[in-house]
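Posting for a labmate who doesn't have an account.
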Amino acid sequence: MFKAASIFRIADDFTLPSLEALEEALQASHFLPCGATQPESSGWVPPRGNKSTVLAEQVGGQLIVRLCTERRPLPASAIKDAVEQRIEHYKQETGHERVGAKIKKEFKEEAIQSLLPRAFTKRSSTTLWIDPVNKFLVVDSGSLTGADKVVSQLVEVLSQVPGTTPGLMARPVQTTMSAATAMAHWLASREAPVGFTIDRDCELKMPDDQKSTVRYSRHTLEIDEVAEHIAAGKVPTQLAMTWNDRVSFVLTDAAQVRKLKLLDVVLDGAQDKGKDDDGFDADAAILTGELAALIPDLLEALGGELSGETPASSADLARPAPELVAA
C-alpha cells in the first residue's frame, strides 16, 4: 500500500469531518482522464481499486484516500522541431529573417496544442493516510515536492467540507537533528539509534560542485572506510535501516522514507489472523499500525520534533553530535 513516506504534522485541534461529508467533497473532485488537448488531470479515486466507488476509506479510525494524476508528456525535442517548422514557414511567407519573441511564444503554444492529442498518457496514483490520533499525515511519496502537491489538493477538498475548522495546517515534520547529520553520526560511531539497525546499503556524497559519490550495496558498513569518507566531508544521502526487525526502509538526507517494506514477522502474523475479502482492511490496519509506532521512534532518533525551527546543519558532519553520543 505504501512504498515510501513523506511525513507531515497536522494541527493538534484538527478533527476529521464526517465520512459522508468528506465523500461528497471527494466525489465532486473525482478523477477524470485528460482531454485531447489537456496536458494534465488529477482527481480522487477509490483506495480499494476499480471494484469500489468509495473515495474515503476509514479503517480503525484511520482515513485513507488516493489521488490519481494523468499526464500527456511531450518530448522537448518534438516541441522544438514543431516550433522551428512554424518559424521557417513564417519566414518564407513574410520574407522576414527575424522572428519576435511574442510570435515564437505563439508558435510554441500552437505546437503544444497540436501535439497533445497524439501524445500517450501516463497515469500514477498516490495514497494519503491521515492519523487523527497522533496528528500525522503520511503521503506515499519519496519526494517532498511531489508530496506537497498532493497535500495541497487534499487541503483544497477539506476546505469544501462544511464546518471543517480548523484547517488541516499540514507541514513537513522538522527534527532537532537533520537526517544527514544523524546518519553521519550513526555511521561514524557504528552505533544505530535505539530500536533500529543499520543495514547494508548507503550513499555518501560530497556537498560541492563535483558531487563525488560513493555507494555501498549489500556491503557491511561497519568499516573504517565509511568513517573516513565522512571525516573527509562526504554527507550520507541515503541509508538502509530496519526498525525493531519489523520494517525495513531507506532514510534520505531530506528525512524521506523510501523502499518501505514490512518484514516476515509482521506479514506472518497477518496471515495467521486472516484477511477480509479484498485484503484492503487488513493491509491498511497492519501498515498504519506499524507506521504509527515507527514514526515517533524515527523522529526521536533524529533528536525529537521541532516546531518551526531549523534543524541542525550538516556542516557539522565531521565532528560527533554530543546529544547523540551514548553515555
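Reply:
Got it, the C-alpha cells are right above this. The first helix runs from residue 19 to 27.
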